[in-house]
Amino acid sequence: MIDFIITYQWSIFIGLEILSFVFLLAFLIIRYAFTKQKLSNWFMILFILCMVLEVILALLIYQQTGEISTFQIVIAIFILYACTLGISDFRKLDRWIKKKIGDWRGINLLSDEDIRKMELAKDPKIIARNNRRWWYCHAVIFIIGHSLFWLYNGNHNHDLMFYLEDLSWWEEADHTNGPFQSEAISAISKIWTIIFALDTIISWSYTVFPSKKN
Fold first, then answer.
1. How far, rounded to the nearest angstrom, does the alpha carbon of residue 12 sit from its chain's CA centroid?
2. pLDDT value, residue 213
3. What SS3 state is found at 181?
C-alpha cells in the first residue's frame, strides 16, 4: 500500500485537488439551486476532508523518504493558498454562483452586502488595490518558497548571490550549473519565476494604467 502511494503520489494529489473543486461547486450549487442546506454541508465537509488528506499524504511521503521534496513543497503552497487568498476567491465564487443561480431561478439571492462588494469590485481603485495585495502575497510566497528550495536543495558550491549576479545558468540545459541540485525544483523555479514576472507586470498595470470607472 505504501509503495503504491509513493509511486502514484502525484496522481493521488491531482485527484484530491479535482475532487475538492467538484465538492466545492456541489456545495454552492446544492445550497442555492436546490436549497438543501444540510446536504450541501456534507459537500463542504468532503472538501475539507480532501485538504486534510493532502496534508496526511505529504506527511506520509516525508515519513517514508525522510526528506522534504518538491511534492511536499507543492502541497504546502496549495494549502497555504487555500487558507489565505483562497478564502477571498471562494467568497467571489460564492457571490458569482448566487447571482447566476438567482437569475436562473428568477429570484434575488444576493444580499445588500454582496451587491455592494460586487459594485466595489468594478471600481478601478479597488481593482488596483486588490491586485497590489495579491502581488504582495505572491511575492512573500515566492520568496519563502525559493528560500526553502535553497535551504533544502540548494547547490552550495557557490553562495546565493553568485547565482543572482551571474544568470548564465538560466539558459543552460544542465541544471547542475544552476542554484538547485534537483532538476525538478530547477524547472519549477524557472517556471514560477516567469509566472511571477508576468504577474508583476499585470498586477501593477492596474495601478500604473488604471481603467476609467464606468
1. 18
2. 60
3. coil
Same domain? 134 vs 206: yes
CA 178, CA 14: separation in Å to the nearest integer? 29
Residue 74, H or E segment: helix 70-83
Whether the CB-CB separation of 97 and 32 falls below 8 Å is answered with yes
Same domain as 76, residue 127: no
User: Quick one: 101 exposed, middle or buried, by C-beta within 10 A (0-12, 13-18, 19+)?
Assistant: middle
Instruction: Please state, in angstroms and as integers, the Cα–Cα distance from residue 171 to each residue in 108, 129, 181, 193, following that order.
Output: 55, 35, 16, 14
CA dist 199 and 134 (Å) reads 9
Domain that holds residue 9: 1-83
* 74-116 pLDDT per residue, tens: 888 888 888 877 888 898 899 999 999 999 999 999 999 999 8
Cell of 101: 443561480
Half-sphere exposure of 94 (CA within 13 A, CB side): 15
Q: Cβ neighbours of residue 50 under 8 Å, at least 6 residues apart? A: 16, 17, 19, 20, 23
Distance CA 101, CA 188 (A): 39
Number of domains making up the chain: 2
Residue 28 has pLDDT above 90, yes or no: yes
